[in-house]
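Pilot study result, target chain (727 residues):
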Amino acid sequence: MSNSLEMTTPHEDNRLDDMVQGVLGTALDRPEGPLKVSGTATYAHEWKLDGMAHGVLVLSSRPAGRVTSIDRASVEALPGVLRVLTDDRFLKRTAQGMEGEAPPQGIDEIGHTGQPLALIVAETFEAARDAAIQLDLKIEEASADLDPETAPSEEEERDAQGDLDGAMTAAAHSVDVTYTTPGHNSAAMEPHASIASWDGDALTLRGSYQMLKFNKAELADALGIDAENVRVLSPYVGGGFGSKLGIATEAIAAAIAAQELGRPVAVAMTRPQVFDLALRRTETRQRIRLAADADGRLDGIGHEAWISNTRDGGFSEPVTQATPFIYRGDHRLTAMTKAFVNLPPAGSVRAPGESVGHTVLENAMDELAHEIGMDPVELRRRNIPERDPMQDIPFSSHKLREALDHGAEAFGWSDRKAEPGARREGEWLIGMGMATAVRVHMLLESEARVRLAPDGAVTVETDMTDIGTGTYAILTQIAAEMLGRPAAAVTTILGDTDLPPSSGSGGSFGAASSGTSVYLACMALRRELARRMGCDEGELTLKDGDAIAANRKVSLADLLGGDTLEERGHCEGSATSEKARQATFGAYFAEVAVNAVTGEPRVRRMQGTFAAGRILNPKTARSQCLGGMTWGIGMALTEELMHDPRTGAIVNGNLAEYHLPVHLDVPQIDVHLLEERDPWASPMQVKGIGELGICGAAASITNAIFNATGVRVRDYPATLDRIFPHL
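Predicted structure:
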């Protein structure tokens, strides 16, 4: 049996169910947790290298035009300043780690406010920052397109089935509504930061990145060097949410400066620079059309979306990604139009597509339920399709009905009053809302190496990253379970491109993809141990450092006889997307109080039920769902990128004015994880969960606001000024 595997058929023979160590599926604490809470985990900008200089980026204050002059001499004469650098390569970056390269503009050609134009390098950060403020750039302005509604645009996709217009005309019940969502920022705790150092022709970059094998190639391409001469280290990443998928300006600038100066250079974006440079989620305008018969069964679904990006930004937010398969209906339309603007570039932000697209669809479903006079849960139950409606293929597994039923019971949905405004406590109007959750599943190529030492110690090595999702924990658990060792006997090493290349973290594919590579390596080790025991692998039991077969028990140490065993696992990805629709599902329920005097909304409680295949670690999985639902509260009530209409500049590019939900905004959140196995998803029957927790969460809150007040907020976020005038 090969150490490589591509999914082409369902993997029904799941050996993990036969393992007996009892580590996998438990709420194991993060192995790196003590380092993080004690402040001894070294993040990208915390390395101390001899002779290290510091760089600060200088950004454009204009949305379009060209630079006519830069006063380098005056700034380079300032105390501590080493160099003023400009280089076309600053802009040669990819918008997304896997999406292909966006062609760079010349450094003197400005495409948006906040575009990097120069790097000031000095002996200290303070000197570099002071010089960056003083750098005089002369810019010849040009006309700019700053409003996505009036900017040049083109339709990028249109997929139709049947006759939606006819279905809307014939429908017993229908809705035709338009919602808008604003731009969002990832706002990761750790700003983008890199330290570059050279040893001859070899570059080492200590950076904060999610997908190292791609980042290594991107960095080499941007610099015009061989990828074999690049090493990227990223053992700890303080949040990414998509913003660190592709290599960014600060890494390229640090590498160029370090090479030119012959010493290490550190460059970290300031928080406002993160807002300008780290890829925003596009704003959207979405039109939803739903046509239903008298019994609430959908006959037609239309979902048209308008988004934006820069002219050379290749990424398009896949807003309609889940609409083709989430509900039944013979007549369907999805379409996407992209406007080309001189705004900061757009890219992936947690759960691109469903996070905003499915949210709006779930608002429209709530509107349809109210139009029909049907319970919103029942409307959704009634419209769960038996097969993918667009592709006419089966679902690999489908737990939406169970999630709806379980969530409704756990939340106490039966206590909801259908009439908006019917429940009041003093000056607070109380409402309940719900929404479904859905996220596509992907399995990508990933490799890992597992080593079993003579004393039974296990080492897992892969360039996979942990962006706060629990990768160190789950890869440790997989190896420990399969090799019959306690978790303490396993060391997992991540975040180094000298290690086997992984899928990286993103798109909810990391756990299944990198986990599969560890699984395959461990299976190869098990086969060798079985050979030494004189049995087939399926007859071998490994537990607590012993190998057991045919009533014979041998310690691993004796079985190894002083040998070190090493195997490499290679997950080649999946070729099954045309055979079975693979997705994760769930349901949200929320109770919201709205002040009848001020219009202020407050989430009082929230419950989520999710199914994502085998749960490797319920603690880290629950944490991912908690984070997603918290972000859903922010999407619903507070988060909104605001641009100056004159320049396109982000005017709330800091965490004081870009309002994230804080403790008082977030109630007790209840998360339930359903038991599920999906043989199509991966050999471990695992699916991703990191993004599922946000996909529709905001809709449960705004639907609850409607139930509380009768006010339908169709322009996110639902701030009190959008509620109060209609009370």
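One observation from the pilot: The two ends are 67 Å apart (CA to CA). A full batch analysis is planned for the follow-on phase.
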